[in-house]
Amino acid sequence: MSEMLGQIQSLGEQFRWAAEAEAPHIGTFSEVLCAGMGGSGIAGDYAAAVARPDGTRVSVHKGYGPLPLWAIRQRPLVIAASYSGNTEETLDVVVSAFESGLAVATVCTGGRLADLSAQNHWPSITVPSGLQPRAALGYMAGAVIRLLEGSNSVGDQRLAFLEAAKLADDLTAEGSPVWEQAGSIAEALEGRIPIVYGGGPVSGVVAQRWKTQINENAKVPSWFSQLPELDHNEITGWETLGDLTRASVGVVVLRDENDHDRVVRRIQHTRELTKDSVPWVGEVMSTGSSTLARLVSLTVVGDLTSYLLAERLGVDPTPVATIEKLKKLLIEE
């Protein structure tokens, strides 16, 4: 069994850990800014989707500081999420937030971010180490959501964590119907550039996750877009190079029960208008009652699809050599 498959199948265990993790008391914030990159940064996007029904605005900052001017005015809680604790962009944002006098909380396994948290007495949750950051989604998103609880930004998510954990266990178990679904999508995407469409707060967030998992696990280019925005631009991009796109691109669309009714209709019309130029190779509908569980249900299909696609392409899904080379080049400058 691949190391990455084992890490994908640990998602349920990760959310059970989150259900038991202690939420430090931070205060009360109606606005939060999450800083993070890559597999760590996506935790902020998931937390934002979970917080949305509670009316809390969670913004996600992916890049260096300084902080956007609105944050200086609004004084949000700044949550820095870095699995290694050494992500340079996230550390830059933390320093900017601290120098601006903003409240800071952190999530990491250690590293420089843990040192800064200890030195400045910032509320922090230490997550278990030993995984690829992208495979630690349950730990990272769970810890960020726990910090939202500690800042009174969302209600108690324990039941949602447990529902998500059970769902992840059921779906990742070999032999589950999801394996067949993921295998079928992976087969259809082999030799193609995958494009993932989402159309709402849940499906849109996970479309981004699918794209990055395909990049890092299968080592192939991919992109994601969201309806209804793509219907105002991208839909026309399928008109000219039909011979090329029919042979080299494949679309997967993600759905959620809370997608707007008009988005559902747009998906149907968009498929009909573009199907002669690009194959629509799969449609995945979320399951579960809580927002978190529905996020997880779509996530699992994407994670398994990216793993099975890597298997079909004969590549090891675990290492990310080019990312590591880039980090080394930046350190050596």
Short characterization:
The chain is an alpha/beta fold and 333 residues long. It has 14 helices and nine strands. The model has no long low-confidence stretch (mean pLDDT 96).
Name a few traits of the molecule.
14 helices, single chain, four-stranded parallel sheet, Rossmann fold, alpha/beta, 333 residues, 14% strand, 9 strands, globular, five-stranded parallel sheet
Number of domains: 2
**CATH H-level homologous superfamily name of the largest domain:** Glucose-6-phosphate isomerase like protein, domain 1
> Helix and strand string, N-terminal first?
HHEHEHEHEHEHHHEHEHEHEHH
Gross morphology: globular
- Bin the strand percentage: 5-15%
Amino-to-carboxy terminus distance = 39 Å
Compute the number of strand runs.
9
* CATH architecture grouping of the largest domain: 3-Layer(aba) Sandwich
**What integer is the average pLDDT?**
96
CATH fold group of the largest domain: Rossmann fold
Query: Within the largest sheet, what's the order of strands?
Result: 2-1-3-4-5
Q: Fraction of residues in helices?
A: 40-55%
Which stretches are low in confidence, meaning pLDDT under 50 for 5 or more residues running? none
CATH C-level of the largest domain:
Alpha Beta
Strand pairing plus helix content: what structural class?
alpha/beta
The helix count comes to: 14
Q: Can you walk through the features of this model?
A:
The protein is an alpha/beta fold and 333 residues long. The protein has 2 domains: 3-162, Rossmann fold, CATH 3.40.50.10490; 174-313, Rossmann fold (3-Layer(aba) Sandwich). It contains 14 helices and 9 strands. The chain has helices at 3-8, 11-20, 38-51, 69-74, 88-99, 111-120, 137-150, 158-172, 177-189, 203-218, 242-248, 261-274, 291-313, 321-332; strands at 31-35, 57-61, 77-81, 104-108, 124-126, 193-198, 223-226, 249-255, 280-285. A 5-stranded parallel sheet has the order 2-1-3-4-5, sandwiched between helices. Strands 7-6-8-9 form a 4-stranded parallel sheet, with helices on both faces.
